């Protein structure tokens, strides 16, 4: 969130996005919000500037006014919807991988090596754990996605 009446807050967006990328979960839900859109006479950040930053970061963009209750519900509903969709995708991926082991193929000095995920089990606390089997045990050097 940045303040549309404060150019410094807008100029620090790249810092905050970088901070989120470095410290948050890779699948964290993000939106960009310009606050105080009701302060038209004090505005220093144009709506198109915010929209361009949001597009470059591939996140939804909103302007809001907490004071005037503009777009507040829409922002929260969008974030909630994004979280729900993300959880459904994650659940779908987990369900599809439960019954069939996933193989990762590696290349070591020209010899393919397979690492197979045997199980993906849910524990009582809702977390998952993997069990691994290394088919051939050489030192692995380069991941080669082209191998069968």
TrEMBL record:
Keyword hit for Lipoprotein: yes
Pfam families (UniProt xref): Ras (PF00071)
Domain of life: Eukaryota
Keyword field: GTP-binding, Lipoprotein, Nucleotide-binding, Prenylation
CDD domains per the UniProt record, alphabetical: Rab (cd00154)
GO MF term set: GTP binding; GTPase activity
UniProt family annotation: Belongs to the small GTPase superfamily. Rab family.
Protein name in UniProt: Ras-related protein Rab-8A
Source species of the chain: Caerostris extrusa (Bark spider)
């Amino acid at each position: 969130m940045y303040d549309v009446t404060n150019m410094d807050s807008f100029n620090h967006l790249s810092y905050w996005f970088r901070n989120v990328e470095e410290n948050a979960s890779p699948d964290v839900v993000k939106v960009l919000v310009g606050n105080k859109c009701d302060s038209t006479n004090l505005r220093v950040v144009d709506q198109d500037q915010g929209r361009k930053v949001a597009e470059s970061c591939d996140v939804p963009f909103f302007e809001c006014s907490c004071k005037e209750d503009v777009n507040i519900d829409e922002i929260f509903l969008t974030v909630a919807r994004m979280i729900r969709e993300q959880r459904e995708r994650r659940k779908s991926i987990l369900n599809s991988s439960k019954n069939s082991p996933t193989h990762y193929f590696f290349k070591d000095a020209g010899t393919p090596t397979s690492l197979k995920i045997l199980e993906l089990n849910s524990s009582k606390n809702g977390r998952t754990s993997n069990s691994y089997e290394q088919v051939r045990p050489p030192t692995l050097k380069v991941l080669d996605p082209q191998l069968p």
